[in-house]
Amino acid sequence: RFVHNDKHKRLAREVARQGTVLLKNEEGLLPLSKTIGSIAVIGPNADN
Fold first, then answer.
1. 3-state per-residue secondary structure call for 22-48
2. What is the distance between the alpha carbons of residues 38 and 15, in angstroms, rounded to a whole number?
3. What are the residues whose beta carbons fall under 8 Å from the beta carbon of 30, sequence distance 6 or more?
4. What is the torsion angle, in degrees rounded to the nearest 10, for the CA atoms of residue 31, residue 33, residue 36 and residue 38?
5. CA 30, CA 33: separation in Å to the nearest integer?
6. What is the pLDDT of residues 1-48, one digit of tens each?
7. Engineered SS bond to 46: which of 10, 17, 40, 41, CB 3.0-4.6 Å?
């Protein structure tokens, strides 16, 4: 099965475009420390 075709490339680009999140670094929290062991994801889509 050939998956590296134009249709799949377009789909991969669209998935990447829709999945991009822009974060504001207003409180100087980024970049996150390497010593952080876990991060809470909270909200209606946290499990999706």
1. CCCCCCCCCCCCCCCCCCCCCCCCCCC
2. 26
3. 23
4. 10
5. 8
6. 677 899 999 999 999 888 888 888 999 988 988 999 999 989 887 887
7. 41
